[in-house]
Amino acid sequence: MIVYDRKTRTFFLSGKSFSCVLWVHPAGYLCNLHFGGRVGEDDLTYFDPSARGLSFSPVPPDTDSEFSLDLSCNEYGSFGQGDFRSPSVLIVRENGERASRFQYVSHKIYQGAPNLGVLPAARGGETLAVTVKDVLSDVGIVLNYTLYEDSDVLVRNAEIVNRGNSPVTLLRAYSFCLDLAAGEYGVLRLHGRHNMERTPEIAPLGHGSVKIGSARGASSHQMNPFLALVGKNAGEDGGECVGVELLYSGSWTLEAEKSQTGSVRVCGGINDLNFSWKLHTGERFVTPQVAVCYSDRGLGEMSRSFADFLRGHVLPEKYVYAPRPVLVNNWEATYFGFDREKLCALADEAAPLGIDTLVLDDGWFGKREDDFTGLGDWFVNEKKLAGGLDPVISHCKERGMKFGIWFEPEMISEDSDLYRAHPDWAIGRADVPRCKSRHQYVLDMTRGDVTDHIFARMSDILSRHEISYVKWDMNRHITEFYSSRLPAERQGEFSHRYMLGVYGLIRRLQEAFPNVFFEGCSGGGGRFDGGMLSFFPQFWTSDDTDAYERAKIQWGTSYGYPLSAMSCHVSSCPNHQTGRTTPFFTRGAVASLGATGYELDLGKLSAEEKAQVKEQIENYHEIEALILRGDLYRIADPYEENCFCVAVVSKDKSRAYVVGMRIHAMPGDFDRRIRLKGLCPEKEYTVKELGRTLRGDTLMNAGLLLPRLGDFGGWVWHLQEKS
Ligand code: DGJ
Q: How far is the CA of 194 from the centre of ligand 1 (A)?
């Protein structure tokens, strides 16, 4: 609920268990009086910092009081007027001046979310839009706050409009700024690299700042656009945390800064490295959204809030709760070495096991025999696939299976007909050598002719064949950051315009093919972010399919994202990424914690393994509702313990699905107890695998014994409330 108190000029934004209280200070500044647990609609203006001036804290010229932007909790940080913390925006005017001072102008409250054009945007809610203006430059800023009564997530962004008579240039345009009252926090971030995404790392926030981000033109494997402040006494199951995640897939920044007084600023948005944006009179710049989550029950509750929010308001409505395809992908089965016979043989093996979709990965187009060639030539390679795609699709159909296909729409190989025809379509200058990565260049997605061409090629394939699924991949990061089509003064706009081009193309394709299910991918989980998830209900979590490594990656990913967004496959052993051999059962158990599938040559499996695939898929159908809708509880941390364990509990607490892995067999660890979480203490649950019925409080407080398994031994427990 959003309430405005005219008398005190205070806004009360109240979510499920948090409140955010904004105040228009008598001097005109929009301040934050409280962000945290629920409060009543009381007058909190006693937090006015005016009375507590500090030496060296400047007072702006339009107030008689001792109010200083250096000491107040500001809703959008300005530059050059006494707030010396990280500013939210840097506006350069014609004379080169950069200072700005934002004053409240007006506000409106309305049902629903702001319209952000092609940018990803959360659905529904109630929105407060506060307009402030930079009194030094005639730039107006609309600060949007979208609130959901059943959620502890507040969505924010800023829209910047030039209302003056001359152009201005933005050198920074963050989405939000949140100043929290003095407190002690740790900063949790999810760092990584290719094959090792979203590793949680937490370190205390001392005075000064922690700045994380990506300048790679993609949200990246290296750092996820997520950050959480973890209160001093907070942990997995208790204490105050504030999480933020950007609904954005390009270069980004998030900062946490502890000020001289101990207050903490969290801010961020588009990375300002190499960023500039020219705004002529009347032009508007819309920043990406950020989801801000408050939890007073630790990181576990924060993750469940993010999961509910993303499922309820961000992931595509049509697909979010619908059963997902259980697929076999040919990548690790064949890599580039496939033909019609091999694909048909894979479908022959898959159908009787319960697999419903065959996905043809990289290599079906142009002259692509390896990763040096063919990207951009989205024509079926009939040399490899005699008769084209249709014989394979028909073969699948006859076996009751659907067909999916891989594209890497944003890329171009030097050895491709597309590049020979349009060398200038690649990012960078065509007349000087450019960087390659995976031997390929990136298409200039800021150009309408490029996105039109890719749309036409993909539409042609999708409309001429019965294709139910598309895997959208992106296998390198951006270099050069130069478009021959942009004027010199707009080259700083390149990165963000690239993302707008990508979002626009995905949107167009999804509107044209509403019945095609899209999965996202970027060399595994290199663009696993809320922006991509607004188009793709699931994302390939990582190219690392080793069950032990995957358990860790999925654990890290779960801090900010729901299980149903994680695409997880069973692959063969020795694992192609690590060389490790893990039990087949464990691989299935870990892959069941997401949108499940297979990525191996099914023909090479033993009869016993095939029987296990069948069982795994039957199990998956049984627990799919939990994966799509349930609450995740992290129980044993594989980064910290010799064990991995999580539970997914139904909203009504009548069912739970527990997956675990004993990492290394150890002598004598016979008293390790697994204490479950999230159950109803008074309910009685039957644990199918153990043939026991126990009360929820017994299962949570006394727990169950860690099964005595060998290295990487996995187990599952199905809990059902006793009727
Ligand atoms: C990277 C993806 O993550 C893999 O699953 C596979 O699609 C390859 N690209 C194909 O090039």
A: 12
Query: What DSSP element (H or E) covers 358?
Result: strand 357-360
Q: What is the CATH number of domain 317-540?
A: 3.20.20.70
| Residue 523 Cβ < 6 Å to ligand 1 | yes
pLDDT band at 303 (very low <50, low <70, confident <90, very high): very high
CA of 527 to the centre of ligand 1 (A): 13
Separation between Cα atoms, residue 581 and residue 344, nearest integer Å: 28
The tens digit of pLDDT for each residue in 80-116 reads: 999 999 999 999 999 999 999 999 999 999 999 999 9
Question: Catalytic site residue 417?
Answer: no
Separation CA 348–CA 459 (nearest Å): 28
CB atoms within 10 A of CB 50: 17
Any bridge partners for residue 227, and if so which? 189, 244
- Residue among 282, 180, 173 at smallest CA distance from 228: 180
Tokens 């002529």 map to which residue?
Answer: 280
Q: Considering the chain, tell me which residue range(s) the CATH 2.70.98.60 domain(s) occupy.
A: 2-313
Rg over CA atoms, the chain: 26
Pairing of strands 517-520, 538-540: parallel
Q: How confident is the model at residue 15 (pLDDT cuts 50, 70, 90)?
A: very high
Ligand 1 neighbour 493 (Cβ under 6 A): no
Confidence at 51, pLDDT banded by 50, 70, 90: confident
Residue located nearest, by CA, to atom 4 of ligand 1: 523
Domain boundaries for CATH 2.60.40.1180 within the chain:
635-721
Going through 121-198 in order, the beta strands assigned E by DSSP cover: 126-134, 139-147, 153-162, 168-180, 185-191
Cα separation, 671 vs 706, in Å, equals 8
User: Would you say domain 2-313 falls under CATH 3.20.20.70?
Assistant: no
pLDDT at residue 52 tops 80: no
User: In which residue are the tokens 């995740």 written?
Assistant: 632
Pick one of 2.40.50.140, 3.40.640.10, 1.10.3810.10, 2.60.40.1180 as the CATH number of 635-721: 2.60.40.1180
Reply yes or no on whether the pLDDT at 515 is more than 80. yes
- CB of 70 shorter than 6 A to ligand 1: no
pLDDT for residue 462 is more than 90: yes
- Cβ proximity of 187 and 229 under 8 Å: yes
Does ligand 1 have an atom closer than 6 angstroms to the CB of 539? Answer: no
- Every domain of the chain with CATH number 3.20.20.70 lies at 317-540
Task: Give me the phi and psi of 149, to 5 degrees please.
Answer: -60, -30
Question: Residue 97 corresponds to which amino acid?
Answer: E
**pTM of the predicted model over 0.90:** yes
- For the question of residue 473 being annotated catalytic, the response is yes
**Residue 64 binned pLDDT confidence (cut-offs 50, 70, 90):** confident
* C-alpha dist (Å) from residue 615 to 162, 564, 610: 61, 20, 9
Residue 581, number of CB atoms within 10 A of its CB: 14
Contacts of 664 (CB under 8 A, 6+ apart): 642, 711
Site to substitute for ligand 1 among 521, 528, 553, most atoms within 8 A of C-beta? 521
